[in-house]
Design a protein that fits this description.
The complex is a heterodimer of chains A (about 280) and B (about 180). In chain A, about 40% of the residues lie in helices and about 25% in strands. By secondary structure, chain A is an alpha/beta fold. A five-stranded mixed β-barrel of chain B has the order 2-3-4-5-7. Chain B has about 180 residues and is α/β, with parallel strands linked by helices. The termini of chain B are far apart. Chain B has one domain (about 5-180): Alpha-Beta Barrel (fumarase), CATH 3.20.130. Chain B has six helices and seven strands; from the N terminus they run E-H-E-H-E-H-E-H-E-H-E-E-H.
């Protein structure tokens, strides 16, 4: 048994959300640079250069790169040999979110109840927490700051096995086409394929935080990721939706076993910054 | 390359702008997004006066991040505009001349933009820090309880934007992608 005091978790979660909101990953910055060199639309190229400059300024000045600092989503992967002490795990995670958003000049964007009052909770809590228990004595924390301009453009379909590769591909490309300029292209497209209704969506969310350079281990899915990216970029939506060759930077697919009758596909749309940060305690 | 545009927009200036024009906006704008729009429309439904005069105004769809000490405003990029579509035609009928946001507008909004000779400007989502540098001063005008969603007045200088829908109804979000769409995939 290894003891972890939950106050360490609070501090780590806070640090991760500050980092995710201020500093965009090297992988994303490289992909934006490459896209800016290759973009054929002059206006599209200008937009990409603005995004690069904006993200550099955020990192240098410790400013959030986007005013929508997101709904906080936390993936916890907890070793079963860990004994948590000092309080509740979920309260500790929420305390970390509260600390980052109140001390770090981040916008508070959460309403306590979705339909009637929609009153802002004032500290960006509660966050959404997904916990997996695994062998080991470590705790891995992945913090995602998910903007809702892109979240609102996400879709899920319960396809049938007959839909096959074409049905899945068409649904993913159609999701991006319908989103158009709204989710701040260029995009990172997270796809969850298989599992159940809920697991598909969860995998899609997790997929948005994978490194841009990552490819699916199965070469058939890796090829499908590339083919989908080409089809999406052929839509012409372009940077900011003003037209151009860069509509997405990457399509990530995560797969899971599924039912003999089903082919769930979830598409979580994420803007280019794909804000996330992770740490192991 | 960029056209300098003074706000409030005059009828003539609005008509000269063309979809795709890169502009730098100077003057002042009101801010408002989902919650503020909902309240304004509720007042109109009740036949009550609005807390703001919309004549000639431009509304920027934004909920800024908090300002650090010494700054006028925190990062303040555009939010997605279509969520304001159900409210927009009525505000245009009251004299609203310009809107700044990101993303497409519905057919009814574009028809109302044409009818009233208004302009919809696109700002780049993801350039919140750069945009905030063009905002020199802010004040809360109405609904302070809404926090970042309150109606502010922003005094802006050389705010970078693009004409997304012009007073003739031409739509950059439609015309731009058409030029780059490849139909063979």
């Amino acid at each position: 048994m290894r003891e972890i005091d939950v106050s360490t978790i609070t501090q780590t979660v806070s640090d991760l959300f500050l980092q995710a909101n201020y500093v965009i990953g090297e992988d994303v910055m490289e992909a934006l640079n490459t896209a800016a060199h290759q973009e054929t639309s002059p206006l599209g190229k200008h937009v990409l250069e603005q995004l690069i400059e904006n993200n550099r300024a955020g990192a240098e000045e410790s400013l959030c790169v986007c005013q929508d600092t997101g709904l906080s989503v936390v993936f916890l992967t907890l070793g079963q040999e860990v004994h948590l002490v000092g309080g509740s795990l979920e309260e500790a995670v929420n305390a970390g979110v509260r600390k980052a958003y109140t001390e770090g000049y981040l916008r508070k964007s959460i309403v306590a109840e979705p339909l009637f009052d929609r009153k802002n909770t004032g500290d960006n809590t509660p966050c959404v927490i997904h916990t997996r228990i695994v062998p080991g004595d470590k705790l891995h924390i992945l913090a995602i700051a998910k903007g809702f301009g892109s979240e609102n453009m996400s879709r899920l379909a319960m396809l049938t096995p007959a839909a096959g590769v074409k049905g899945v591909s068409d649904f993913i490309v159609e999701t991006v086409r319908l989103a158009g300029p709204n989710p701040c292209p260029p995009l990172v497209v997270g796809v969850g394929l298989g599992g159940s209704f809920d697991l598909a969506a969860l995998m899609a969310k997790r997929a948005t935080s994978l490194p841009i350079t990552r490819k699916h281990k199965d070469p058939r899915y890796a090829a499908l990721e590339d083919e989908l990216l080409a089809r999406i970029n052929a839509l012409g939506i372009g940077p900011a939706g003003y037209g151009g060759a860069t509509t997405a930077l990457k399509v990530h697919i995560i797969t899971a076993p599924t039912h003999i009758a089903g082919l769930p596909v979830a598409v979580n749309i994420c803007c280019h910054v794909a804000r996330h940060a992770e740490a192991t305690i | 390359m960029e056209k300098h545009v003074q706000l409030p927009l005059t009828q003539e200036a609005a008509r000269e702008l063309k979809a795709g024009d890169q502009v730098l906006l100077t003057g002042s704008v009101l801010t408002g997004r989902d919650a503020a729009h909902k309240r304004l429309i509720a007042l109109l439904d009740e036949g009550k006066p609005l807390p703001i005069d919309l004549q000639g105004e431009t509304i920027y769809y934004v909920g800024p991040a908090p300002a650090r000490p010494g700054q006028a405003v925190g990062p303040a990029g555009p939010t997605t505009s279509y969520r304001m579509d159900p409210y927009t035609p009525r505000l245009l009928a009251l004299g609203l001349k310009g809107m700044i946001g990101k993303g497409e507008r519905g057919a009814e909004v574009i028809a109302a933009i044409k009818e009233h000779g208004a302009v919809y400007f696109g700002a780049v989502g993801g350039s919140a820090v750069l945009i905030s540098r063009s905002i020199e001063k802010t004040e809360v005008i109405a609904y302070p309880d809404l926090g970042p969603e309150a109606i502010h007045r922003f005094y802006i200088k050389d705010f970078p934007a693009v004409v997304a829908v012009d007073a003739q109804g031409n739509n950059l979000y439609e015309q731009g992608p058409q030029l780059y769409r490849k139909t063979d995939l």
